[in-house]
Amino acid sequence: MSQSSPGSPLPPASPDLPVLRVAVLGAGTVGTEVLRLIAQQGEDLAHRIGGRLEVIGVSVRDLTRDRGEHVPADLLTTDPAALVREADLVIEVMGGIEPARTLLLDAMAHGASVVTANKALLAQDGPTLYEAADTHGVDLYFEAAVAGAIPLVRPVRESLAGDRIQRVLGIVNGTTNYILDAMTRTGASFDEALADAQELGYAEADPTADVQGHDAAAKASILASLAFHSRVRLGDVHCEGITEVSAQDIAAAGRMGRTIKLLSIVERVRDETGERISARVYPALIPDSHPLSSVSEAYNAVFIEADAAGSLMFYGQGAGGAPTASAILGDLVSAARQRVRGGVGPRESRYAELEQIPLDDLRNAFYISLTVQDRPGVLAEIAGTLSGYGISISTIHQELIDQSEDGGEKSLAHIGISTHRALESAMTASLDVFSSTATVLSIDSVLRIEGE
Ligand code: NAP
Ligand code: HSE
């Protein structure tokens, strides 16, 4: 049996195999690993594809940086526009919207198939890329754009193409999972856990896209579009990040037997108006017994619920050079095989054109935490406001705030309330009342409860 490890005996692929010219845009964390895998597995890949991959150029900004043995200096170029016109296959791992968008459109117009890891671009302008692939009869693959090494795009758009997906729920951002996990394990604040994540290389110097939830929202828009055969753009995804999650929230969740995770949720919602879809990202409390609660460090995990398949769970490394490169190589082999044997890969499927349900119309369970005056009637007032909007309380936890060190009276309290499922609009209206009443000094947290 042939082995794929470097240096092992392998019958050489026929020298007459067709050659496929590969352009790589970017040689950073992911690009370098892509080039390593192509170099180390060249013979295996030739067998699997029925053609040889020849890297014809690697586009970067800085030509002087040493990028290791698998990124030969003579392949580097600062002219990606010229490079993509010479290629049969273009791998885009530069990131950002421009010039990536223009380069990919140009590559496809010149007949190249494209493999990209660029979730930001797909979430913002995926339809334009799909249309270009269609027009020019080439392929567009993007497994690496959602959850790194974890196969999710292919299962959703191919393996489950005959099923009816109801819901995809998961952790698709490793940085925020690392931070929330550290806060849960150590009691650290958000700022402390973020600094730790940056020091260990889990979080980038500018962590905005991760901690504000934008990265997870981009992935949610891609998953929703595929799962529900409808166009869901980044702006359609309700997005809340984890910057407001406090050590007190984590402790309160722990008291309730729950863990806080940043969840991406895309689902079908059926009500009297028919069927619509929801795509949203927010930190939520999930029961400690839920499988997602034990997903630690920077790992990702995703549940898919489909009518016939039932529940499926995917788990693994959602980021990092080698894991992400693995997903890219899988796409590269598919696109390359099609170049050799003919045919095209999956196209955009948007026939269902399902509408988005506004967040206000969703029903969710909540955990809210308030700082209130500690005097008779305050709890009754809060409960009265909630019940006036049809919100039923599930649990209440109260703690007096000890102001003795500040010379104050013990006259304030923290109240943590979890509710049964209620309309988002009802919770918003209740919070409006709380923010204008004298008895509530501050609304400290508002989090959803999921997975029950
Ligand atoms: P990175 O380390 O910052 O590398 C980006 C590379 O692209 C660098 O080599 C850079 O050149 C080059 N580049 C950037 N802008 C360019 C421009 N305008 N013209 C020419 N070259 C340019 O990024 P990465 O972490 O590898 O991520 C690449 C893509 O993969 C992004 O879309 C990201 O979202 C996606 N992704 C990353 C991961 C991950 O774990 N890192 C996981 C999944 C998906 P210089 O080196 O000269 O600066
Ligand atoms: N920044 C992302 C994460 C990896 O933390 O999961 C790229 O998708």
UniProtKB/TrEMBL annotation:
GO-annotated molecular function: homoserine dehydrogenase activity; NADP binding
Reactions mediated catalytically: L-homoserine + NADP(+) = L-aspartate 4-semialdehyde + NADPH + H(+); L-homoserine + NAD(+) = L-aspartate 4-semialdehyde + NADH + H(+)
Ranges of residues in domain ACT: 367-445
Gene3D superfamilies linked to this entry: 3.30.70.260, Dihydrodipicolinate Reductase, domain 2, NAD(P)-binding Rossmann-like Domain
Binding-site residues for NADP(+), renumbered to this chain: 25-32
GO biological process, one term: threonine biosynthetic process
Cofactor(s) the record lists: a metal cation
Keywords, comma-separated and alphabetical: Amino-acid biosynthesis, Methionine biosynthesis, NADP, Oxidoreductase, Sodium, Threonine biosynthesis
Active site positions, chain numbering: 219 (proton donor)
Pathway: Amino-acid biosynthesis; L-methionine biosynthesis via de novo pathway; L-homoserine from L-aspartate: step 3/3; Amino-acid biosynthesis; L-threonine biosynthesis; L-threonine from L-aspartate: step 3/5
Annotated function: Catalyzes the conversion of L-aspartate-beta-semialdehyde (L-Asa) to L-homoserine (L-Hse), the third step in the biosynthesis of threonine and methionine from aspartate.
NCBIfam families in the record: PRK06349.1 (NF004976)
Similarity annotation: Belongs to the homoserine dehydrogenase family.
The name this protein goes by in its record: Homoserine dehydrogenase
Species in which this protein is naturally found: Brachybacterium alimentarium
